[in-house]
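Q: Could you write out the predicted structure for this multi-component system? I'm mainly interested in how the pieces pack against one another.
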Amino acid sequence: MSRLHHFWNSANSYKIRLLLSELGRPYDSAALDRANRAQKEAAFLAVNPRGQVPAWEEAPGQVLIESAAILFYLAHGTALLPKDPWLQAQVLSWLFYEQQHLCNQGAGMAHFWTHVTNQAEAKKAELEVAREKARTEFAYLEKHLQGRDWFVGDSMTVADIAIYGYTHRAPIAGIALEPYPNVMAWMARVCARPCHIRFEDKPA
Ligand SMILES: N[C@@H](CCC(=O)N[C@@H](CS)C(=O)NCC(=O)O)C(=O)O
């Protein structure tokens, strides 16, 4: 069975868990001990020499890294990735956007310092910059969602899953989402889906 190498407290990992739940696809869950830096140990470096998660092991030795690429690959041929090339390119556009503007700065960094490394005090100034960047991006998402239910087309795609990852964690990182009612309504649509799982849900 394919295996997901992940952290429980990583939104990049959660995106893949959420997609797999949406797809009803069984997988082997290999959660790494982040506190003890298991991602930098030889056993995992043999899977992903970058020492990062998520990593999708399709079959032994056949590994795909980068959450956006994993989402794109796993959604292929399913309702979560449009077949139309134009819409598919729109999905890709949002996947690139998410990595640059939500994951690597702004909401993603705010989540990292507040939720993962508990450095809210030590990183006070950087945290405020990250929160401000997140607010700028949420205002952008808010405009895009005006009159739309989903980021691309008429139904949920992996673009929504990617953006949902760090966006729904914003409040825990000290970024209020109330000023963005379209974003809040969209998040409620994502949550209302029958196969939705929450960040903290772990398989029994
Ligand atoms: N762009 C990558 C980012 C991967 C990444 O930064 N993963 C983090 C967890 S969210 C990680 O493994 N950090 C541990 C480390 O870098 O040592 C993706 O989206 O998969």
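A: Regarding packing and overall arrangement: The two ends are 18 Å apart (CA to CA).
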